[in-house]
Every structure is written in C-alpha cells, then in structure tokens.
Amino acid sequence: MKTISKIGLGVAVLAISAISIHAVQDAPTDENFEKKLVNDYNVYALPLPEKMDFAGEAVPLNNPDIRERMDRELLVNTYWQSNGLLLFKRANKYFPLIEPLLKKYGLPDDFKYLAVAESGLEYTSSPVGASGIWHFMKGTGLEYGLEINDYVDERYNLDKATMVAAEYLKKSKEKFGSWTMAAASYNAGVGGMNKQINRQKETSYYDLLLNDETSRYVFRILALKEIMTHPQQYGFNFREKDLYTNIPTFTVKVDTPVEDWAEWVKPYGINYKILKLHNPWLRDTYLKNSSGKEYFIEIPEKGYYQ
User: Fold this and answer.
1) Model confidence pLDDT, tens digit, residues 1-18
2) How far is CA 23 from the centre of its chain?
3) Cβ of 262: how many Cβ atoms within 10 Å?
C-alpha cells in the first residue's frame, strides 16, 4: 500500500511541478498558460507488448483482466520517472554482480527484477523488518542458515542472500510447478499461496484471486523487466556516464575478534563509512568473533575514494 501511495504522489508532484514552472516562466496570461499546459505537459497511454513472459513462462495477455493489470503496472512504473532513473543507475552497478550469482545458484535471469521490485537495489530494511537487497525476514534468514545477530547480518551479504533466495524460490517452483507461482510465493509465502489454491481450486497465479499486494506483485516485476529492457521506448534517456558503477575490491580474511573496525581499516586507506558501504552485513563498530569463524571483508582498491 505504501508503494501505491508513493507512486500516486510521485506522479502528482511531477504534474504540479511542471505546471508551476510554466506558469512562472512563460504564462503571463491565462491563454498562454492553457496553451503551455496542453502542449508542454503530456501523459500518454502505453501500448501493451504483444507478448510477455516471466522466466520463459507466457503471460496470458489475451485475458482482459490480465491486460488491465499489466497496463496499470506499466503506467505506474513508467510515470514514476525519478524512481525509474534511479533503478537504471543502480542496475548498472548491481546487475553485473547479481546475474552471475543467479546463474551460479540455478535461477533464471528474470529474478533480478524481483530483487528490483523488493528493494529497488538498495540495502534497505522494510517497516516490517525484511532486510537486504532480497528483503528477507529475520526468521526466514535464520531458517536458511544465515547468521543474523548484533554484529553480523548476512541478509545484507549479496552472495549469501542470493543463495538463500535461490533455495527458497527453487523449492517453491518444485512445489507449485512454475517460476511465476514461485515469484508470487516470495511475496505471499508458501502457506499463503497454498491456502488460496485449496480455497479456489486453481493452480495458476493468473487465475487466483489474491490480496492486492500479491495480485500486483508479479505484474510489477514484469513491468520492471519490460521498462528496463526497453528504456527509450518508455521515455528514459541517459548516457553511460550517468549510471552508477561498481568499484573493484579485494577480500581480506578475518578469523579473530575485531575491537574497532574504524581502526582496523586505517592501513587500507579508508574509513568506517567506506567499509560499511562495501560490507553492509557488518552491523556494529566491532566484531565479537569468539568462535574464530572466517569472514571475508571487501576492501576497495586504492584511488577510488581519494
């Protein structure tokens, strides 16, 4: 629901700001104002693609309900322009990291758009506590073997979190029979999807009546895939130099306690903030590692922060 309100607010702000700029600069009369309003600010209906798929599974666009739901998400995600540009910028930084991990752990490449839908490719935490780029709840992370405590939270470790996402989604695909249903279960939970399958006697995501969030979830992923695959077709224009890039790093093994990360990083010519940017899974200024567990710290190569 918060996503919906943000989207609506974003579109409204864009429209209002465009009107205000023209009113101040070029519209000394009501007649000029109206001409500028009509000619300089336009919102267009979007033609739906003839075919769409998720992980090779066709979207039934011949169904009028499916067409309307797909149209909604394309419009919402196209006209939230500021957010869209940020997604393109971050994708240039993170897709080269995520794509080989998806291949490594046996997930179709389209699941990178699920990560976009979940977190916007930011190491964030939702209001209910889902964290990291893949937005796991703490219980799910612990269930799948991630370390989560006051010092380390591996939901923020991209490699390990992608591995867990892959395990969850592959199990869901085995249970429900399709990647589309697996993606939906990522939002609603396996139990939630099972309940609706049993109640409605349907096994396809597109034939199930689901809560508003889950009923939009896969369509949002599809919209993000379509827009991010064809940016200029949807009005997004940028240059390579406008995009964010990943900074090369090397790893340092740590298997002892660390009393103060801010002191520990000084020989590498960086500070605590830079350490955290590259290792967001470190959750405090020190590491209580009494067990001697091995951790691998990413250190940026010299010259990038100077």
Assistant:
1) 333 333 333 433 333 333
2) 37
3) 12
